[in-house]
């Protein structure tokens, strides 16, 4: 299953947005246009749908409250509204599932409650839920929670809730992985920056883990000079999990190195490949090109497609990027390109235009046809600062 469309109202940069999604969607736009905020929509729904994670109230609180979420261009209407359509195929004409969530603060004053203003669930043409309902009207306290997050209330659409609760976001920061023990500190929930990445690998069964590492090693052998082998090995004293890589060396047996000696690019590539192989729900990748050589970056679209073709479970991937190198890959399907354009009324989201589609059909790349249009108008002034 995959998300085929998102409608947003008053979400951060987006006063109103209608976003078509594909099995591989590339989100491009200038700095500050809202690429990260668009990806956060799906993280937000994940946080809401987790029954043991605090639901709606905690998801909003973790983002600074309703006033940090609500679009600044929303002058009178302060309702935040998200609508997602899900289907078995990106080419489906009608959604299998549709979920609508609206919420806003109640009344005035410092102690305003956050209440659900709208919640609907549709399966095909049949509506399974519509709120507020009679029970909500009798007890307004019920509107502080969604039915999506309540196990007793989401029985009829548990499939939808489970899908959203398994959305994965990864923006691996190599330094947090290399020096996690020395840095210390509390990890963020769901570990979006990969500090607990090795522990995630350790929880996997040995058979599955070894099979995945063999696939990853095959890719690394093409991207990392002198790389030969990758293995998982817990520390004999502390039990802490480690990855070790074997490199060709002047010694006949080669040389094994632990992850703290891996390059940043190697760690990010391992994180990317593991995430593609781990799970079947939506995967969010933010600027996967960071720390990687241009030759590797250019192959990321094909790497994603090939890895998922060979994986047991295929998953939808949404990628935010402004990498000219990655978008130069002519294997990118124009249907999966989403452009963010800033304006006085917030950020506008659009698919490629008819003329841009013709350019891609003629053999040009997304980097040649679309990316130049996201260039800041007065960027030349930056060099005069």
- Binned, the helix content reads 25-40%
Distance between the termini: 49 Å
How does the helix and strand content classify structurally? alpha/beta
Determine Rg (CA atoms, Å). 22 Å
Mean pLDDT: 88
Secondary-structure element sequence?
A: EEEHHHEEEEHHEHHHHEEEHEHHEHEEHH
**Principal-axes shape call:** globular
Number of E strands = 15
Largest sheet: 6 strands, antiparallel
The number of helical segments is 15
Strand percent estimate: 15-25%
What can you see in these coordinates?
With 385 residues, the protein is α/β, with parallel strands linked by helices. The chain is built from 15 helices and 15 strands. The strands form 3 sheets. It has a 6-stranded antiparallel sheet, with no helix packed on it. Strands 8-12-13-3-14-15 form a 6-stranded mixed sheet, with helices on both faces. Strands 9-10-11 form a 3-stranded antiparallel sheet. A hairpin with a 2-residue loop joins strand 1 and strand 2. Helix 1 runs antiparallel to helix 2 and helix 1 crosses helix 5. The longest helix has 18 residues. It is globular and about 75 Å long. The termini are far apart. The mean pLDDT is 88.
Question: Which key phrases capture this entry?
Answer:
alpha/beta; six-stranded antiparallel beta sheet; 15 helices
What's the quick description here?
The chain has helices at residues 35-49, 55-61, 66-69, 134-138, 158-165, 174-178, 180-183, 197-203, 206-223, 264-277, 294-298, 300-310, 324-327, 354-361, 366-369; strands at residues 2-11, 14-20, 24-28, 80-87, 97-105, 114-123, 126-131, 168-170, 227-232, 243-247, 255-258, 283-286, 317-320, 337-341, 348-351. It contains 15 helices and 15 strands.
């Amino acid at each position: 299953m995959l998300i085929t469309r998102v409608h947003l109202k008053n979400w951060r940069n987006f006063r109103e947005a209608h976003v078509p999604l594909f099995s591989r969607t590339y989100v491009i736009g200038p700095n500050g246009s809202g690429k990260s905020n668009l990806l956060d929509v799906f993280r937000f729904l994940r946080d809401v749908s987790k029954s043991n994670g605090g639901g709606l109230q905690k998801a909003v609180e973790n983002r600074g409250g309703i006033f940090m979420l609500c679009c600044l261009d929303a002058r009178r209407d302060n309702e935040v509204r998200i609508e997602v359509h899900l289907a078995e195929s990106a080419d489906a004409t009608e959604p299998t599932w549709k979920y609508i969530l609206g919420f806003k603060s109640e009344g005035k004053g410092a102690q305003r409650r956050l209440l659900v203003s709208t919640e609907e669930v549709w399966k095909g043409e049949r509506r399974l839920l519509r709120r507020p309902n009679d029970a909500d009207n009798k007890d307004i306290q019920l509107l502080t929670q969604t039915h999506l997050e309540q196990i007793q209330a989401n029985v009829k659409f548990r499939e939808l809730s489970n899908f959203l609760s398994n959305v994965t976001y990864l923006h691996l920061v190599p330094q947090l992985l290399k020096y996690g023990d020395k840095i210390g500190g509390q990890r963020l929930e769901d570990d979006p920056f990969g500090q607990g990445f090795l522990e995630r690998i350790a929880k996997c069964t040995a058979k599955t883990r070894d099979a995945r590492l063999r696939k990853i090693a095959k890719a690394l052998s093409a991207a990392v000079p002198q790389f030969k082998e990758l293995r998982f090995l817990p520390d004999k004293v502390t039990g802490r999990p480690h990855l070790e890589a074997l490199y060709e060396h002047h010694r006949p047996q080669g040389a094994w190195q632990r992850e703290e000696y891996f390059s940043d690019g190697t760690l990010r590539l391992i994180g990317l490949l593991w995430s593609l192989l781990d799970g079947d729900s939506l995967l969010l990748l933010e600027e996967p090109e960071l720390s990687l050589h241009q030759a590797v970056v250019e192959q990321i679209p094909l790497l994603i497609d090939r890895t998922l073709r060979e994986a047991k479970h295929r998953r939808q991937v949404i990628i935010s990027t402004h990498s000219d190198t990655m978008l130069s890959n002519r294997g990118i399907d124009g249907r999966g390109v989403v452009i963010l354009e800033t304006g006085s009324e917030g950020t506008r989201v659009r698919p490629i235009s008819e003329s841009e589609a013709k350019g891609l059909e003629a053999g040009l790349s997304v980097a040649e046809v679309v990316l130049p249009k996201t260039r800041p108008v007065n960027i030349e002034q930056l060099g005069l600062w």
